[in-house]
Amino acid sequence: MREMPESEVYEGSLPFWPYKDSLASVVKLINKNAPQKGALLDMMCGTGYLLGEIAKKRPDLRLIGVDIDDRYVSFSRKTYPGVNIEKGDVLKWHPQSAFDVVICTGSLHHVPYDRQEKAVANISSLVKPDGFVIVSDSYVDDYSNEFERKNAAAKLGYEYLKETIQNKAPNPVVEWTIDIMWNDVLMKEFKTSLRKRLLIFEKYFAVVDTMKTWPAIESDYGDYISILRPR
């Protein structure tokens, strides 16, 4: 597996990836819909970038981030001192009280396929009955066998790489974007299709609303945001 990059490279990649549109949309959704002085959890928060952006718009919110990578936890604590960052596993981390809003962005594909449902189930347990969850991720075309999965991963990876280059990304970002495709095709990471992910969401949430943020063309692959409300 190509290792995840150092925190600075990862965070520096965000302005060049198509995924930047999903992150901006999540910030808008939180700004509009999170309750005043509510508690928000970013599960698998990575470098803490999104929490930093949310804090700019909604300083009233109590923000908590959880990630399993020591490098990202350390970077987040130094870079976003106003946010409470904890080390934890999406499969089993659980707080003393539930949150008004739970987000998980660009992360579930790091969880092996046979554990993704467990991750979603745990996320669903972290939100208050009247709260909501936002999950955004990159998805490949639907597939029914390993040959189709590899081709779907290669297709998404190529389109991601092409747009990243068009956005004039520096070479370290281009290199990491190539590594993402390598990981996806060889199943070192675990991107799935939107269709398969929605089947899991519908088991644990009463309302599932999904919007596409990239690409603008009609396609099954791409970046999607799902707004989920508890049963």
From TrEMBL:
Methyltransferase domain boundaries: 41-131
Gene Ontology MF: a single term: transferase activity
Keywords: Transferase
Domain of life according to the entry: Bacteria
One Pfam family here: Methyltransf_25
Name of the protein in its database record: Methyltransferase domain-containing protein
Organism: Candidatus Berkelbacteria bacterium RIFCSPLOWO2_01_FULL_50_28
